[in-house]
Specification:
Blueprint lengths: L2 E5 L14 H6 L2 E3 L1 H7 L2 H10 L19 E7 L2 E8 L2 E6 L2
Antiparallel strand pairs: 1-5, 2-3, 3-4, 4-5
Length: 98
């Protein structure tokens, strides 16, 4: 189960441009579906992030993250280890399994 690690805004500066770091992770990523993303990540942590980003839990209440076509989902590697992340408003939210 992959858990939320960090977003790119709070990323350690020394690791942004390092070999295998954040920039490489973004450059080497592949797009995946939300359904695939949900198979691997801790859904409780995602729900918490969704609330903090002002998404509703059900479409009858308003915009949900699942219904926001501006959010994208990705798989990549960070220092050789698989990670999953989503991009919201040009910010990457990274999930790792360590």
């Amino acid at each position: 189960m992959y858990q939320f690690y960090c977003d790119c805004v709070g990323w350690p500066r020394h690791d942004v441009l390092s070999d295998g770091g954040l920039s490489d992770m973004i450059d080497d990523s592949i797009d995946i579906t939300r359904k695939t993303f949900l198979k691997y990540i801790d859904y409780t942590e995602l729900q918490s992030l969704e609330r903090s980003l002002c998404y509703y839990s059900h479409p009858s209440q308003g915009l949900t993250m699942a219904g926001d076509y501006h959010v994208s989902y990705h798989r990549s590697k960070l220092h050789g280890r698989r990670v999953y992340y989503f991009r919201h408003s040009a910010i990457e939210y990274v999930f790792t399994n360590n």
